[in-house]
Protein backbone atom coordinates (compact mmCIF):
# COMPACT_ATOMS: atom_id res chain seq x y z
CA UNK A 1 0.00 0.00 0.00
CA UNK A 2 1.32 3.42 -0.95
CA UNK A 3 -0.19 6.09 1.24
CA UNK A 4 0.54 8.83 -1.33
CA UNK A 5 -1.66 7.37 -4.04
CA UNK A 6 -5.41 7.18 -4.50
CA UNK A 7 -7.19 3.84 -4.65
CA UNK A 8 -9.32 3.05 -7.70
CA UNK A 9 -12.43 4.08 -5.76
CA UNK A 10 -10.84 7.29 -4.53
CA UNK A 11 -9.77 8.16 -8.07
CA UNK A 12 -13.33 7.70 -9.28
CA UNK A 13 -14.56 9.86 -6.43
CA UNK A 14 -11.92 12.58 -7.01
CA UNK A 15 -12.73 12.64 -10.72
CA UNK A 16 -16.45 13.02 -10.07
CA UNK A 17 -15.90 15.70 -7.45
CA UNK A 18 -13.48 17.60 -9.70
CA UNK A 19 -15.90 17.60 -12.63
CA UNK A 20 -18.72 18.76 -10.35
CA UNK A 21 -16.52 21.49 -8.89
CA UNK A 22 -15.42 22.82 -12.29
CA UNK A 23 -18.95 22.65 -13.66
CA UNK A 24 -20.43 24.40 -10.63
CA UNK A 25 -17.76 27.08 -10.77
CA UNK A 26 -18.39 27.78 -14.44
CA UNK A 27 -22.17 27.90 -14.04
CA UNK A 28 -21.93 30.07 -10.94
CA UNK A 29 -19.70 32.72 -12.50
CA UNK A 30 -22.35 35.17 -13.77
CA UNK A 31 -23.85 35.47 -10.29
CA UNK A 32 -20.61 35.15 -8.33
CA UNK A 33 -19.28 38.00 -6.24
CA UNK A 34 -16.29 39.48 -8.02
CA UNK A 35 -14.52 40.39 -4.81
CA UNK A 36 -16.00 38.24 -2.06
CA UNK A 37 -15.33 39.33 1.48
CA UNK A 38 -12.71 36.85 2.70
CA UNK A 39 -13.96 34.66 5.52
CA UNK A 40 -11.28 35.71 7.96
CA UNK A 41 -12.32 33.28 10.68
CA UNK A 42 -11.99 30.33 8.35
CA UNK A 43 -8.72 31.57 6.90
CA UNK A 44 -7.29 32.17 10.36
CA UNK A 45 -8.50 28.66 11.22
CA UNK A 46 -6.25 27.35 8.46
CA UNK A 47 -3.29 28.83 10.26
CA UNK A 48 -4.41 27.72 13.70
CA UNK A 49 -5.09 24.11 12.71
CA UNK A 50 -2.00 21.90 12.70
CA UNK A 51 -1.40 19.84 9.57
CA UNK A 52 -3.25 16.56 10.15
CA UNK A 53 -1.09 13.63 11.11
CA UNK A 54 -3.57 11.37 9.33
CA UNK A 55 -4.99 12.60 6.01
CA UNK A 56 -8.63 13.65 5.77
CA UNK A 57 -9.23 11.81 2.50
CA UNK A 58 -10.61 12.83 -0.86
CA UNK A 59 -14.14 13.87 0.02
CA UNK A 60 -13.18 15.89 3.07
CA UNK A 61 -10.46 17.63 1.05
CA UNK A 62 -12.89 18.61 -1.69
CA UNK A 63 -15.29 19.80 1.05
CA UNK A 64 -12.52 22.05 2.41
CA UNK A 65 -11.75 23.44 -1.01
CA UNK A 66 -15.42 24.26 -1.50
CA UNK A 67 -15.98 25.49 2.02
CA UNK A 68 -12.81 27.47 2.73
CA UNK A 69 -10.73 28.11 -0.38
CA UNK A 70 -13.19 28.92 -3.17
CA UNK A 71 -15.45 31.30 -1.20
CA UNK A 72 -12.47 33.48 -0.21
CA UNK A 73 -10.97 33.59 -3.70
CA UNK A 74 -11.28 36.59 -6.02
CA UNK A 75 -13.43 35.76 -9.04
CA UNK A 76 -10.90 36.64 -11.72
CA UNK A 77 -13.06 34.83 -14.30
CA UNK A 78 -16.07 37.10 -13.68
CA UNK A 79 -16.99 39.03 -16.87
CA UNK A 80 -16.74 42.33 -15.01
CA UNK A 81 -13.36 41.68 -13.44
CA UNK A 82 -11.63 44.55 -15.21
CA UNK A 83 -8.84 45.42 -12.80
CA UNK A 84 -5.15 45.20 -13.65
CA UNK A 85 -4.00 43.37 -16.79
CA UNK A 86 -5.27 40.00 -15.69
CA UNK A 87 -7.54 37.88 -17.80
CA UNK A 88 -9.63 34.86 -16.87
CA UNK A 89 -8.21 31.53 -17.93
CA UNK A 90 -9.43 29.98 -21.16
CA UNK A 91 -11.78 26.99 -21.00
CA UNK A 92 -9.29 24.19 -21.59
CA UNK A 93 -6.86 25.52 -18.95
CA UNK A 94 -7.92 23.42 -15.92
CA UNK A 95 -7.76 20.21 -17.96
CA UNK A 96 -4.37 21.01 -19.48
CA UNK A 97 -3.03 21.88 -16.02
CA UNK A 98 -4.27 18.58 -14.61
CA UNK A 99 -2.55 16.58 -17.35
CA UNK A 100 0.65 18.61 -16.99
CA UNK A 101 0.67 17.79 -13.27
CA UNK A 102 0.09 14.10 -13.95
CA UNK A 103 2.99 13.76 -16.38
CA UNK A 104 5.18 16.23 -14.43
CA UNK A 105 7.75 16.82 -17.16
CA UNK A 106 10.90 18.57 -16.05
CA UNK A 107 11.59 21.06 -18.85
CA UNK A 108 15.29 21.44 -18.18
CA UNK A 109 16.97 19.03 -20.58
CA UNK A 110 15.19 17.15 -23.24
CA UNK A 111 15.62 13.58 -22.07
CA UNK A 112 13.41 14.43 -19.10
CA UNK A 113 10.77 15.97 -21.34
CA UNK A 114 11.13 15.22 -25.07
CA UNK A 115 7.58 16.06 -26.17
CA UNK A 116 7.51 19.06 -23.84
CA UNK A 117 10.75 20.33 -25.38
CA UNK A 118 9.20 20.25 -28.84
CA UNK A 119 5.88 21.71 -27.65
CA UNK A 120 7.69 24.64 -26.01
CA UNK A 121 9.74 25.14 -29.15
CA UNK A 122 6.62 25.17 -31.30
CA UNK A 123 4.93 27.73 -29.01
CA UNK A 124 8.05 29.91 -29.03
CA UNK A 125 8.47 29.70 -32.81
CA UNK A 126 4.83 30.65 -33.25
CA UNK A 127 5.17 33.58 -30.83
CA UNK A 128 8.32 34.70 -32.68
CA UNK A 129 6.39 34.65 -35.94
CA UNK A 130 3.61 36.76 -34.39
CA UNK A 131 6.20 39.34 -33.32
CA UNK A 132 7.92 39.16 -36.72
CA UNK A 133 11.26 37.91 -35.39
CA UNK A 134 13.64 36.09 -37.79
CA UNK A 135 14.27 32.34 -37.62
CA UNK A 136 17.43 33.00 -35.56
CA UNK A 137 15.21 33.93 -32.61
CA UNK A 138 15.05 31.73 -29.55
CA UNK A 139 13.21 32.11 -26.31
CA UNK A 140 11.90 30.55 -23.17
CA UNK A 141 8.64 30.56 -21.26
CA UNK A 142 8.95 32.25 -17.89
CA UNK A 143 6.99 32.81 -14.71
CA UNK A 144 5.62 36.07 -16.14
CA UNK A 145 6.48 39.34 -17.80
CA UNK A 146 8.58 40.64 -14.91
CA UNK A 147 10.83 37.60 -15.02
CA UNK A 148 11.05 37.76 -18.82
CA UNK A 149 12.33 41.34 -18.58
CA UNK A 150 14.78 40.40 -15.83
CA UNK A 151 16.09 37.52 -17.96
CA UNK A 152 16.26 39.79 -21.02
CA UNK A 153 18.35 42.40 -19.21
CA UNK A 154 20.69 39.71 -17.94
CA UNK A 155 21.09 38.58 -21.56
CA UNK A 156 21.80 42.15 -22.63
CA UNK A 157 24.42 42.48 -19.88
CA UNK A 158 26.11 39.33 -21.01
CA UNK A 159 26.10 40.55 -24.60
CA UNK A 160 27.40 44.03 -23.90
CA UNK A 161 29.69 43.72 -20.89
CA UNK A 162 33.03 42.04 -21.65
CA UNK A 163 33.71 39.01 -19.42
CA UNK A 164 30.36 39.48 -17.71
CA UNK A 165 30.19 35.90 -16.45
CA UNK A 166 33.68 36.10 -14.99
CA UNK A 167 33.77 39.56 -13.49
CA UNK A 168 30.12 40.62 -13.43
CA UNK A 169 29.70 44.30 -12.79
CA UNK A 170 32.64 44.37 -10.39
CA UNK A 171 35.10 45.70 -12.91
CA UNK A 172 36.32 49.19 -12.42
CA UNK A 173 34.25 50.66 -15.21
CA UNK A 174 31.78 53.51 -15.62
CA UNK A 175 28.15 52.75 -14.68
CA UNK A 176 25.92 51.22 -17.32
CA UNK A 177 22.73 53.18 -17.96
CA UNK A 178 19.31 51.84 -18.96
CA UNK A 179 16.61 54.06 -20.44
CA UNK A 180 12.88 53.59 -20.17
CA UNK A 181 9.89 55.92 -19.89
CA UNK A 182 8.09 57.36 -16.91
CA UNK A 183 5.18 55.10 -17.90
CA UNK A 184 7.25 51.89 -17.86
CA UNK A 185 6.23 49.02 -15.61
CA UNK A 186 7.95 48.70 -12.25
CA UNK A 187 9.43 45.41 -13.39
CA UNK A 188 12.03 47.40 -15.37
CA UNK A 189 13.24 49.19 -12.23
CA UNK A 190 13.11 45.93 -10.33
CA UNK A 191 15.22 44.13 -12.93
CA UNK A 192 17.79 46.94 -12.92
CA UNK A 193 17.95 46.88 -9.13
CA UNK A 194 18.21 43.07 -8.92
CA UNK A 195 20.93 42.93 -11.58
CA UNK A 196 23.09 45.48 -9.81
CA UNK A 197 22.64 48.27 -12.36
CA UNK A 198 21.28 50.49 -9.62
CA UNK A 199 18.18 52.64 -9.76
CA UNK A 200 20.37 55.73 -10.03
CA UNK A 201 21.31 54.45 -13.47
CA UNK A 202 17.75 54.02 -14.74
CA UNK A 203 16.60 57.05 -16.72
CA UNK A 204 12.83 57.51 -16.80
CA UNK A 205 12.34 59.51 -19.98
CA UNK A 206 9.38 61.89 -20.12
CA UNK A 207 6.46 61.05 -22.40
CA UNK A 208 4.55 63.03 -25.02
CA UNK A 209 0.89 64.05 -24.84
CA UNK A 210 -0.12 60.46 -25.59
CA UNK A 211 2.04 58.93 -22.86
CA UNK A 212 4.66 57.59 -25.30
CA UNK A 213 8.39 57.87 -24.71
CA UNK A 214 9.70 61.15 -26.09
CA UNK A 215 12.46 60.10 -28.48
CA UNK A 216 14.11 63.55 -28.58
CA UNK A 217 14.50 63.49 -24.83
CA UNK A 218 15.76 59.93 -25.02
CA UNK A 219 18.47 60.96 -27.47
CA UNK A 220 19.36 63.96 -25.32
CA UNK A 221 19.65 61.81 -22.19
CA UNK A 222 21.90 59.27 -23.96
CA UNK A 223 24.15 62.02 -25.28
CA UNK A 224 24.35 63.70 -21.89
CA UNK A 225 25.30 60.42 -20.21
CA UNK A 226 28.03 59.81 -22.80
CA UNK A 227 29.37 63.31 -22.16
CA UNK A 228 29.36 62.50 -18.44
CA UNK A 229 31.49 59.42 -19.06
CA UNK A 230 28.71 56.88 -18.33
CA UNK A 231 27.93 53.82 -20.46
CA UNK A 232 24.54 53.95 -22.17
CA UNK A 233 23.66 50.29 -22.58
CA UNK A 234 20.02 49.43 -23.06
CA UNK A 235 16.61 50.94 -23.84
CA UNK A 236 13.42 49.34 -22.60
CA UNK A 237 10.49 50.52 -24.70
CA UNK A 238 6.93 49.56 -23.88
CA UNK A 239 4.31 48.12 -26.20
CA UNK A 240 1.23 48.72 -24.08
CA UNK A 241 2.00 50.66 -20.92
CA UNK A 242 0.36 49.33 -17.83
CA UNK A 243 -1.61 52.49 -16.94
CA UNK A 244 -2.91 53.80 -20.25
CA UNK A 245 -1.97 51.16 -22.84
CA UNK A 246 0.13 53.62 -24.82
CA UNK A 247 2.67 52.24 -27.28
CA UNK A 248 6.10 53.88 -27.45
CA UNK A 249 7.28 54.96 -30.94
CA UNK A 250 9.04 51.68 -31.51
CA UNK A 251 10.49 52.37 -34.94
CA UNK A 252 12.00 55.69 -33.94
CA UNK A 253 13.43 54.11 -30.79
CA UNK A 254 14.83 51.19 -32.83
CA UNK A 255 16.49 53.69 -35.21
CA UNK A 256 18.05 55.47 -32.26
CA UNK A 257 19.25 52.22 -30.68
CA UNK A 258 20.87 51.21 -33.96
CA UNK A 259 22.50 54.59 -34.26
CA UNK A 260 23.76 54.52 -30.66
CA UNK A 261 24.53 50.80 -30.57
CA UNK A 262 22.20 50.11 -27.64
CA UNK A 263 20.33 46.91 -26.82
CA UNK A 264 16.60 47.40 -27.39
CA UNK A 265 14.26 45.43 -25.19
CA UNK A 266 10.51 45.81 -25.70
CA UNK A 267 8.21 45.17 -22.78
CA UNK A 268 5.22 43.79 -24.64
CA UNK A 269 3.75 42.01 -21.61
CA UNK A 270 0.46 43.81 -21.99
CA UNK A 271 0.26 44.85 -25.61
CA UNK A 272 2.46 42.89 -28.01
CA UNK A 273 0.09 39.97 -28.49
CA UNK A 274 -2.43 42.33 -30.07
CA UNK A 275 -0.09 41.78 -33.04
CA UNK A 276 -2.24 38.74 -33.74
CA UNK A 277 -4.37 41.25 -35.64
CA UNK A 278 -2.79 42.52 -38.85
CA UNK A 279 -4.40 45.89 -38.16
CA UNK A 280 -1.96 46.39 -35.27
CA UNK A 281 1.17 46.16 -37.46
CA UNK A 282 1.33 49.87 -38.08
CA UNK A 283 1.17 50.70 -34.38
CA UNK A 284 3.39 47.94 -33.01
CA UNK A 285 5.21 46.40 -35.97
CA UNK A 286 8.43 47.92 -34.60
CA UNK A 287 8.46 45.10 -32.01
CA UNK A 288 10.12 43.05 -34.77
CA UNK A 289 13.20 45.28 -34.57
CA UNK A 290 13.88 44.68 -30.88
CA UNK A 291 16.85 42.66 -29.65
CA UNK A 292 14.52 41.04 -27.14
CA UNK A 293 10.88 41.17 -26.19
CA UNK A 294 8.70 40.26 -23.23
CA UNK A 295 5.32 38.68 -23.95
CA UNK A 296 2.74 37.41 -21.49
CA UNK A 297 0.63 34.44 -22.60
CA UNK A 298 -1.07 34.63 -19.19
CA UNK A 299 -2.56 37.92 -20.33
CA UNK A 300 -3.77 37.97 -23.94
CA UNK A 301 -3.63 34.21 -24.53
CA UNK A 302 -5.61 33.70 -21.33
CA UNK A 303 -3.30 30.97 -20.09
CA UNK A 304 -3.75 30.32 -16.37
CA UNK A 305 -0.96 31.78 -14.24
CA UNK A 306 1.90 31.56 -14.82
CA UNK A 307 3.08 31.88 -18.40
CA UNK A 308 5.35 34.70 -19.51
CA UNK A 309 7.79 34.60 -22.40
CA UNK A 310 11.14 36.04 -23.40
CA UNK A 311 12.18 36.04 -27.06
CA UNK A 312 15.65 37.09 -28.18
CA UNK A 313 16.17 38.00 -31.84
CA UNK A 314 19.63 36.40 -31.99
CA UNK A 315 18.94 33.21 -30.07
CA UNK A 316 22.65 32.43 -29.72
CA UNK A 317 22.94 35.41 -27.36
CA UNK A 318 20.28 33.97 -25.08
CA UNK A 319 22.08 30.64 -24.98
CA UNK A 320 25.46 32.29 -24.39
CA UNK A 321 24.03 34.09 -21.38
CA UNK A 322 22.58 31.02 -19.68
CA UNK A 323 24.41 27.87 -20.84
CA UNK A 324 26.77 26.43 -18.23
CA UNK A 325 28.63 23.15 -18.43
CA UNK A 326 27.48 20.62 -15.90
CA UNK A 327 29.12 17.23 -15.83
CA UNK A 328 26.28 15.49 -14.02
CA UNK A 329 23.71 16.50 -16.59
CA UNK A 330 24.82 14.38 -19.50
CA UNK A 331 22.85 15.41 -22.48
CA UNK A 332 23.09 14.27 -26.07
CA UNK A 333 22.56 17.07 -28.56
CA UNK A 334 19.57 16.53 -30.81
CA UNK A 335 18.51 18.88 -33.58
CA UNK A 336 14.83 18.46 -32.75
CA UNK A 337 15.18 19.06 -29.04
CA UNK A 338 16.11 22.03 -26.89
CA UNK A 339 17.66 21.97 -23.43
CA UNK A 340 15.83 24.88 -21.85
CA UNK A 341 18.19 24.91 -18.85
CA UNK A 342 20.59 26.59 -21.31
CA UNK A 343 18.13 29.41 -22.05
CA UNK A 344 17.23 30.67 -18.60
CA UNK A 345 18.19 30.62 -14.92
CA UNK A 346 16.06 27.65 -13.86
CA UNK A 347 17.04 24.02 -13.81
CA UNK A 348 13.81 22.29 -12.74
CA UNK A 349 10.99 23.88 -14.74
CA UNK A 350 7.32 23.16 -15.20
CA UNK A 351 5.66 22.40 -18.53
CA UNK A 352 4.13 25.85 -19.02
CA UNK A 353 4.04 25.47 -22.78
CA UNK A 354 1.47 22.69 -22.47
CA UNK A 355 -1.41 24.94 -21.41
CA UNK A 356 -0.53 27.56 -24.04
CA UNK A 357 -0.16 24.99 -26.83
CA UNK A 358 -3.29 23.08 -25.75
CA UNK A 359 -5.44 26.22 -25.89
CA UNK A 360 -4.08 27.16 -29.31
CA UNK A 361 -4.85 23.63 -30.51
CA UNK A 362 -8.30 23.48 -28.93
CA UNK A 363 -9.58 26.89 -29.98
CA UNK A 364 -7.30 27.92 -32.86
CA UNK A 365 -5.36 31.15 -33.31
CA UNK A 366 -8.35 32.95 -34.78
CA UNK A 367 -10.31 32.52 -31.55
CA UNK A 368 -7.63 34.47 -29.67
CA UNK A 369 -7.47 37.10 -32.40
CA UNK A 370 -11.26 37.52 -32.18
CA UNK A 371 -11.21 37.67 -28.37
CA UNK A 372 -8.54 40.38 -28.49
CA UNK A 373 -10.42 42.36 -31.12
CA UNK A 374 -13.60 42.06 -29.04
CA UNK A 375 -11.85 43.48 -25.98
CA UNK A 376 -10.44 46.37 -28.06
CA UNK A 377 -13.96 47.15 -29.33
CA UNK A 378 -15.43 46.92 -25.82
CA UNK A 379 -12.80 49.33 -24.50
CA UNK A 380 -13.70 51.79 -27.27
CA UNK A 381 -17.38 51.36 -26.43
CA UNK A 382 -16.66 52.15 -22.78
CA UNK A 383 -14.54 55.15 -23.75
CA UNK A 384 -17.26 56.50 -26.05
CA UNK A 385 -19.85 56.14 -23.29
CA UNK A 386 -17.57 58.03 -20.89
CA UNK A 387 -16.90 60.78 -23.40
CA UNK A 388 -20.61 61.16 -24.05
CA UNK A 389 -21.42 61.56 -20.35
CA UNK A 390 -21.27 64.94 -18.70
CA UNK A 391 -19.39 64.67 -15.45
CA UNK A 392 -17.05 61.91 -16.66
CA UNK A 393 -13.70 62.66 -18.27
CA UNK A 394 -11.30 60.38 -20.07
CA UNK A 395 -7.81 60.83 -18.65
CA UNK A 396 -5.90 59.35 -21.60
CA UNK A 397 -6.41 58.28 -25.19
CA UNK A 398 -7.56 54.67 -25.46
CA UNK A 399 -4.96 52.87 -27.57
CA UNK A 400 -5.60 49.30 -26.40
CA UNK A 401 -8.01 48.07 -23.74
CA UNK A 402 -7.12 50.29 -20.76
CA UNK A 403 -9.70 53.02 -20.19
CA UNK A 404 -8.67 55.69 -17.67
CA UNK A 405 -11.26 58.17 -16.52
CA UNK A 406 -12.31 60.40 -13.65
CA UNK A 407 -15.59 61.52 -12.17
CA UNK A 408 -15.37 65.30 -12.32
CA UNK A 409 -14.98 66.93 -8.94
CA UNK A 410 -14.40 63.66 -7.09
CA UNK A 411 -11.22 64.16 -5.07
CA UNK A 412 -10.84 60.50 -4.08
CA UNK A 413 -12.02 57.68 -6.34
CA UNK A 414 -11.22 55.00 -3.74
CA UNK A 415 -14.71 54.91 -2.16
CA UNK A 416 -16.36 54.70 -5.60
CA UNK A 417 -14.12 51.78 -6.53
CA UNK A 418 -15.16 50.07 -3.31
CA UNK A 419 -18.84 50.74 -3.98
CA UNK A 420 -18.60 49.36 -7.51
CA UNK A 421 -17.07 46.19 -6.10
CA UNK A 422 -19.52 45.94 -3.18
CA UNK A 423 -22.50 46.33 -5.56
CA UNK A 424 -20.89 43.68 -7.79
CA UNK A 425 -20.99 46.13 -10.70
CA UNK A 426 -17.31 45.67 -11.50
CA UNK A 427 -13.84 45.41 -10.08
CA UNK A 428 -11.89 48.31 -11.55
CA UNK A 429 -8.55 49.71 -10.44
CA UNK A 430 -7.13 53.05 -9.37
CA UNK A 431 -4.89 55.03 -11.70
CA UNK A 432 -2.86 58.22 -11.69
CA UNK A 433 -2.38 59.79 -15.11
CA UNK A 434 0.03 62.70 -15.12
CA UNK A 435 -0.87 63.57 -11.57
CA UNK A 436 -4.62 63.19 -12.07
CA UNK A 437 -6.27 60.51 -9.98
CA UNK A 438 -9.01 58.37 -11.40
CA UNK A 439 -10.18 54.90 -12.31
CA UNK A 440 -8.85 52.41 -14.80
CA UNK A 441 -10.91 49.70 -16.45
CA UNK A 442 -8.76 47.21 -18.30
CA UNK A 443 -10.96 45.16 -20.60
CA UNK A 444 -8.54 42.27 -20.87
CA UNK A 445 -11.23 39.69 -20.32
CA UNK A 446 -12.56 37.35 -23.02
CA UNK A 447 -15.79 36.87 -21.06
CA UNK A 448 -16.83 40.53 -21.00
CA UNK A 449 -19.85 41.46 -23.16
CA UNK A 450 -21.40 44.73 -24.33
CA UNK A 451 -24.12 44.24 -21.70
CA UNK A 452 -21.42 44.16 -19.00
CA UNK A 453 -19.91 47.42 -20.22
CA UNK A 454 -23.37 49.01 -20.44
CA UNK A 455 -24.12 48.00 -16.85
CA UNK A 456 -20.92 49.73 -15.73
CA UNK A 457 -21.71 52.81 -17.82
CA UNK A 458 -25.22 53.06 -16.35
CA UNK A 459 -23.79 53.03 -12.84
CA UNK A 460 -21.16 55.62 -13.72
CA UNK A 461 -23.78 57.86 -15.30
CA UNK A 462 -25.77 57.75 -12.06
CA UNK A 463 -22.62 58.68 -10.17
CA UNK A 464 -21.84 61.57 -12.47
CA UNK A 465 -25.44 62.83 -12.72
C1 LIG B 1 3.54 46.57 -19.32
C2 LIG B 1 3.71 45.47 -18.31
N1 LIG B 1 4.93 44.97 -18.09
C3 LIG B 1 5.14 44.00 -17.20
C4 LIG B 1 4.11 43.49 -16.45
C5 LIG B 1 4.40 42.44 -15.44
O1 LIG B 1 3.97 41.21 -15.89
P1 LIG B 1 3.82 39.97 -14.88
O2 LIG B 1 2.72 40.35 -13.94
O3 LIG B 1 3.45 38.85 -15.79
O4 LIG B 1 5.12 39.79 -14.19
C6 LIG B 1 2.82 43.98 -16.63
C7 LIG B 1 1.70 43.47 -15.84
O5 LIG B 1 0.60 43.93 -15.91
C8 LIG B 1 2.61 44.99 -17.61
O6 LIG B 1 1.40 45.50 -17.85
Described by strand count, sense and barrel closure, the largest sheet is: 7 strands, mixed
In terms of DSSP E residues, the strand content is 5-15%
**Global structural class:** alpha/beta
CATH architecture of the domain at 105-350: 3-Layer(aba) Sandwich
Kindly provide the radius of gyration, computed on alpha-carbon positions and rounded to a whole number of angstroms: 24 Å
Query: CATH H level of the domain at 105-350: which superfamily?
Result: Type I PLP-dependent aspartate aminotransferase-like (Major domain)
Number of strands: 11
Strand order of the largest sheet: 1-7-6-5-4-2-3
Q: Tell me the helix content.
A: 40-55%
CATH class of the domain at 105-350: Alpha Beta
Mean pLDDT: 96
Q: Separation of termini?
A: 69 Å
Global morphology: globular
User: Could you name the CATH topology of the domain at 105-350?
Assistant: Aspartate Aminotransferase, domain 2
Which stretches are low in confidence, meaning pLDDT under 50 for 5 or more residues running?
Answer: none
